[in-house]
Amino acid sequence: MKLLAINGSPRKKMNTGSLLEQIVKGAVSEGAEAELVHLADLTFTGCLSCFRCKDPKGKHYGRCAVKDDLAPVLRKAHKAEALVLGSPFYFSMETAFMRACMERLWFQYYLYTNKKQPLSPAKKATALVYTMNIREEELAAYGKDAVIARSKGLMERFFAPCEVFLCCDTRQVKNYSKYEFDVFDVPGKLKRHEDVFPQELARAFTLGSRLVS
Ligand SMILES: Cc1cc2nc3c(=O)[nH]c(=O)nc-3n(C[C@H](O)[C@H](O)[C@H](O)COP(=O)(O)O)c2cc1C
Known about the structure:
Layout: E1 2-7, H1 15-29, E2 33-38, H2 70-79, E3 82-90, E4 93-94, H3 96-107, E5 125-131, H4 144-158, E6 162-167, H5 186-195, H6 197-211
Parallel strand pairs: 1-2, 1-3, 3-5, 5-6
Antiparallel strand pairs: 3-4
The structure holds flavin mononucleotide.
């Protein structure tokens, strides 16, 4: 059993990266092999629309043909039995790193015909992890619920099923006093980080073990 977790945050050890680390640890605790890839370490592009993945006679049918640092990650994602994509919200979307990865991951399997099923591999357990500044009750007001539903829908179209893990009202920086930050309740955020974030890390560990069980 293999789990692959992909971090779309440019920061490896902050909110998203820490949650993904726990997911990996949870999977390993069940005896699975698990790996965490940080997209920010890689040099890669989004989909180039080269259409080689759509040519039924070509050797890349159903598989992204672009050769860059994301290519081995897409191969690992293809083989993994469990796949987790984690991203902070940036302007109410996944980060550019994660968007580029999602384009390449999904488009290779997508077909412009209803006569065939998508070219994705056998079903795999998946999860989407989102971290964000806003509180959970504000998701709809910022249109984030629609973004989550769209990405979850695409994950389920290609891999099904997909769990969504939300971590809201995050501590964005370690030292708020260095910056101008008056749109948030900073003491409230720091307290939440101390009281609630450890519980979220524990919840992430449980998710990791569940995904490989
Ligand atoms: C460029 C940028 C845009 C952001 N946009 C949003 C946003 O639209 N909504 C939100 O709730 N948080 C937003 N944030 C805050 C991050 O989503 C939040 O702090 C997140 O937990 C950071 O994840 P990380 O600690 O793993 O890097 C933004 C942060 C940055 C740097």
